[in-house]
Design goal:
By secondary structure, the protein is an all-alpha fold. Helix content is about 75%, strand content about 0%. The protein starts with a helix and ends with a helix. It holds the Pfam family HD.
Length: about 425
């Protein structure tokens, strides 16, 4: 008997005879349908995919194993059956057996046929309403499998220019308000500066004549940004310590004192470097100094394709990196934040909402990890003091582990995209 016909008949027989026959028959139907579809899109052997799909749950329906044990039991049964009843080559039987034996290990990425059945099984579970938020690996497999293409759409250049002007002018706003140098003020300015530098580099890439003018602007923005680094750090550390609900009043007072001192330094740095006046001057002359590309140049550059390629390069970097430390995560975050900021400004759009979601999730979790590193460094100054920080270190370790897990899960998603 032909291998596919054999396993189709056997799997149907035992699905019908199982205690929950309605589910088993429905699940079998869903998995085979998804397997055929994925085999076609991934250019894999559809017959092998169907053999794996029909056999993947025979460990449960035929052999009676529940849970993860059913995968190996089904693998052994299918291997013996195919060897004794078909002329299928040993090489192909081994591929089928391996994929069935590993199909429950959704958090691990294996070879192409193993991945196909893991994805098909996850898609079926999702359709059947069997995936909870705790089943994150299956959920991510569903998200990745549903992304048919990775594309970025770029907004017209006039929109970029409008955003650029608004962000530049925002750096001179609120400089006389009561809110000046507050945490929210500092945060807004930092984000605006980061966004401007990304747009500046893009404008330089589009027209080299922008290099001299925007290099001067970037230098000024760096000075502005540098004045905000310590206030932002001390505020974040203060808020983190407060959130732990520990008796750390003395440490909080130290952090609040450093925050107040660093806030005063903002004005000193900005005034000493005449930042506001220089910025106002650059804004004034930007009309004659900034070169925007013509429609002809825009068409020639194929900007959508350029940004899509950059995003795919980012996926490659994340998927291929070891990411064994917080510093590795932070380096990856710096690469990815460009896409997050431009999406937030409506200057680019993704072909799938999940392409943005995972950048945003990684940005948040890896940023929080970096802040914990800053707190460790800060506390090193007080290790020999009378501050009671043992409980704080324990809480930080727990928080760090949770954040590391979040980052690792996002990287798993990017590995799935790379695999696709």
């Amino acid at each position: 008997m032909k291998p596919v016909k054999l396993l189709k008949a056997v799997s149907k027989k035992y699905a019908k005879e199982s205690a929950d026959s309605a589910f088993e028959l429905s699940h079998r139907k869903h998995v085979t349908a998804y397997s055929k579809k994925l085999a076609k899109s991934r250019h894999l052997d559809s017959n092998l995919a169907l053999l794996i799909a029909y056999g993947h749950d025979l460990g449960r329906t035929k052999e009676g194993f529940i849970g993860k044990g059913h995968a190996l039991a089904g693998s052994n049964f299918c291997s013996s059956l195919l060897k004794s009843e078909t002329t299928l080559s040993n090489k192909k039987i081994k591929k089928v057996a391996k994929a069935i034996s590993l199909h429950s290990k959704k958090k691990i990425i294996d070879d192409s046929y193993c991945e196909l059945i893991k994805d098909a099984d996850s898609l079926a579970h999702y359709k059947e309403g069997l995936i909870s938020q705790d089943d994150w690996a299956e959920l991510y497999r569903v998200y990745a499998s549903k992304i048919n293409s990775i594309d970025i759409k770029v907004s017209p250049i006039d929109n970029w220019h409008e955003v650029w002007k608004n962000k530049l002018e925002s750096l001179l706003e609120d400089i006389d308000s009561q809110d000046i140098y507050s945490p929210s003020w500092v945060h807004k300015k930092r984000i605006a500066i980061r966004q401007l530098k990304i747009i500046n580099n893009y404008f330089i890439k589009l027209d080299k004549r922008n290099k001299e003018f925007l290099k001067s602007l970037n230098g000024l923005l760096n000075t502005y940004f540098r004045s905000l680094e310590n206030p932002r750090k001390y505020f974040v550390l203060t808020e983190f310590v407060k959130s732990l609900n520990l008796d750390l009043e003395e440490l909080q007072l130290l952090l609040e004192g450093d925050l107040a001192e660093s806030t005063q330094e903002i004005e000193i740095i900005l005034k000493d470097n005449d930042v506001y006046n220089k910025l106002a001057h650059l804004i004034e002359i930007s009309t004659e100094k900034l070169y925007l590309p013509s429609d002809k140049i825009i068409k020639k550059y194929k900007l959508d394709a350029i940004w899509t390629k950059e995003y795919k390069n980012f996926i490659d970097i994340i998927a291929n990196s070891e990411n064994e430390s917080n510093y590795d995560f932070h380096d990856a975050r710096i690469i990815g934040k460009k896409f997050k900021y431009l999406y937030d400004l409506n200057l680019i759009d993704f072909s799938s909402k999940h392409l943005y979601k995972f950048i945003a999730d990684f940005h948040k979790a890896s940023g929080d990890l970096h802040d914990i590193d800053d707190l460790y460094n800060y506390l090193n100054n007080y290790l020999d003091s009378e501050l009671n920080i043992d409980e704080l270190f324990l809480s930080m370790n727990h928080e760090e582990e949770a954040l590391y897990e979040k980052c690792s899960r996002v990287i798993f998603f990017y590995k799935l995209l790379k695999r696709n």
